[in-house]
Amino acid sequence: MKNSTPARIAMIGGGSWATALVKILSEGNVVVRWWLRSETDAAHIKRYHHNKSYLSDVQINPRKVKVHTKIREALRDADYVILAVPAAFVSNALLGLTPKQFAGKHIVSAIKGMIPEVNQLVTDWVETTYDVPKDHISCIAGPCHAEEVALEKQSYLTIASTGVPCAEAVSALLTCRFVKASPINDLYGVEYCAVMKNIIALACGITHGLGYGDNFQAVLVSNATQEIRRFVDTLFPVATRDLSQSAYLGDLLVTCYSPFSRNRTFGNLIGRGYTIQSAQMEMNMIAEGYYAVRSIHAINEPHNVPMPIVDSVYRILYEGASPVSEMNALKREMK
Ligand SMILES: NC(=O)C1=CN([C@@H]2O[C@H](COP(=O)(O)OP(=O)(O)OC[C@H]3O[C@@H](n4cnc5c(N)ncnc54)[C@H](OP(=O)(O)O)[C@@H]3O)[C@@H](O)[C@H]2O)C=CC1
Ligand SMILES: O=C(CO)COP(=O)(O)O
Q1: Annotation-wise, does 66 bind a ligand?
Q2: Which residues are annotated as active site (predicted)?
Q3: Are residues 216 and 167 in the same domain?
């Protein structure tokens, strides 16, 4: 492996997950061209070899990682492009790029959210916007918080793609001393579950903020698994899908229970009475579920899949419903 040509990877995004992925990739034989929108953060990384704004303890290896603030330079000779900005900002990050810049490359979405303007999964949006063949597109899923990657705690990722060689190649890039990545071909199931678990974590956070305990949360998460199953099996039925695998259930659990979870933290603030704006200001990070719940709600309209938890979160965040009365209603409904 030592003498082989390094994999050429463009990392798009300067937040916690991008920083953690750069750390994972740097364990292997790679050249990462890392694009950040912040000139100040980029300059700091070049000079001091760490990202001062996110996971600042992570050391960046300057021999393997080149920092860019012009996205075309980061993309130019990449074989793999990893998108790691929150979904709401990805179109802005890629502004001005055309299918030409993506031709022949593998596009990997590390994003667990939906493009809000069009209610599309990120991988669908990449396919339609940049004419990338579906079997060259994958998404990174699995229960894996950036903060634990920074500490080199053993973690697992699942790489979903309709193209088996693509999923296998990306899994190989992301497997290292402390991460095991495995391929799977259920792209839609995995990606939708990754989006929906954020909404459920918001609900968990809200109940925690309201003073509900672990007993209630366990029932909430159990009901949520049924709700997620109904939704993905209605939209994309796959006979062999096993929602107890870590890409689905594992990710739901870590987001609902971990103190690192952005979505749970955001929900907790809402449950404690913060307004949406003040909760967003309180957090230095983005809770994807806030945007995703509006997309999932809209997508579900023609299907009418019963999703009481998603509907409650939607009403709290977008219709001004009271968290207390929404959770009272859920309390009566769940068993
Ligand atoms: N964090 C994690 O553990 C994991 C995250 N993910 C997913 O990774 C994706 C990225 O999340 P994460 O890294 O946690 O996010 P963070 O909250 O850590 O970072 C946010 C990023 O978004 C950028 N940003 C913020 N506002 C804007 C804006 N208005 N326009 C353009 N860019 C903006 C920030 O740039 P700047 O710093 O310049 O403001 C920063 O790069 C999400 O989809 C998340 O679900 C997936 C698995 C694990
Ligand atoms: O998806 C994640 C971990 O797998 C990160 O999202 P949260 O920070 O909301 O848990």
Answers
A1: no
A2: 197
A3: no
